[in-house]
Design goal:
Blueprint: H1 23-41, H2 48-64, H3 66-81, H4 86-112, H5 117-142, H6 152-169, H7 174-195, H8 198-290, H9 300-329, E1 337-340, H10 342-359, E2 363-368, E3 374-378, H11 379-395, E4 402-409, E5 415-421, H12 431-434, H13 442-446, H14 455-465, E6 469-475, E7 479-486, E8 491-492
Parallel strand pairs: 2-4
Antiparallel strand pairs: 1-3, 3-8, 4-5, 5-7, 6-7
Amino acid sequence: MSNPAEKPEVVQLPAEPVSVPSASSRRAAAQRVREARDKLTSTSGTRPAFDAEMLRQYAQTRLSASYVVMLLVVATGVLFGLWMQPIPAAAWTAGMLCIHSAMIRSCRRFLTEPASPAATRAWRTRFVVLDLLYGLCWMAILIHPVLDMVTETLMMFLMLLVIAVSSMLAANLPIAALAATAPVAVAMALSFVTTGSLDNYILAALALAAEGYFVLLAHRLHSSTFATLEARAEKDALIGELEQAKAISDEARHRAEAANVAKSRFLAQMSHELRTPLNAILGFSEVMKSEIFGAHAVPVYKEYSADIHNSGVHLLNLINEILDLSRIEAGRYELNEEAVSLVGIVADCHHLMKLRASSRGITIHEVFEQAMPRLWADERAIRQVVLNLLSNSIKFTPQGGEIWLKAGWTASGGQYLSVRDSGSGIPEDEIPVVLASFGQGSNSIKSAEQGAGLGLPIAKNLIDLHGGTFTLKSKLRIGTEVIVTFPPERVMSALAPLSDDSPPLQPESSVVPDEKRRPRHKPIMSAGTGS
């Protein structure tokens, strides 16, 4: 029999890494797409909104310079009336004023009508046609045959004046500026060229160069105006985004405040609803555990009663921790400050936890500095901090381990408390987790004695309320140390003795001068005396 064909070996190629574009690159790409779409739908190569704004500025400029243009037309008509017959000059002046009036009326109508893409294109075409008629009229008067007697210099000056005024007025609409100035410049150049002299050739070249210069200047003015509009649009968009972000943040803050109020109400209500039956459970289980009304018929019931009581105590402590944390986070935790001894509180907590540590074979060492002054702090809060730290150390220290309790002076004159154990330690990346509310590290999850993850956050918040520092240092398989410091302002140093003499307990009797003493009168009658 032939051997079966071997299966071909399939080699999986390594997958190419998929490059995910960043947020900034996505925004830039979206901006380029939007600009390209706007240019395709625009008549001038810019955004449609900018087309309407450019036409609006063009109309406003025309209206503001209407009297200047009218004065220029009338002055030119009067001047040409001196060189030619008055009737043609008057007819030209009337035609120019009609075109100028039509342009002014169109600008006013455009400013009063609402802007739309279709209306913008129609008004743009109308303005270009009016400017073209405006330029043709100027061309007609400048190349009139009767004006051959006028010197070329005066004609060149008048042409430059017309081109300059028209370019500045129509700078926001470059095609209109070109329509108003190109006929004049081209006609003057052809007029100079037809004479055939070298000087006129030079003047023709200068006329075309001037036209190019003023067209370029109008284009630059248009570009600067467009850049200004773009910057203003970006500023308005940024302000809109900021206002939208502020509205979103305000709404989120209102929701958070409402949720916080709802949480506080829920915790207050649930604490009352849970404590009421829990007190009954603790009371009756204490009675059953102590066998106050007689021994149980079955001895195991006593153990069950003890388990019920211990579970109730644990649940009550958990409820109290949750309420304390909620009050601290809401800023409603008030410190009942008084003069307390840090060493005395740590020693009392050691005495309370000594039996629990001894049951696990853990040795607790005390290293206290003597003759330490008292602290101005909340005794209940400090006691809760010490108990939380000490219970955590006992919980995560293996049997036969050691715990060191230290209390002493800091370098700045404050006082410190240190709790160090020889437990399994906490990974460095999990330290922020265990300091967060309900946070638990990997060792805590694996431990048989899992807690709610509130001990360290409550301790840290209570120390923050006292203005102190809370530092957690840990290394895997070496141990954990928590250092709590109190600022020097909370240390109650001994007061120095008063330098001035204390006032007397009773006021001294005032000494009356002899001359002011009341004179003692002799008795009127002296009994038994001869005097």
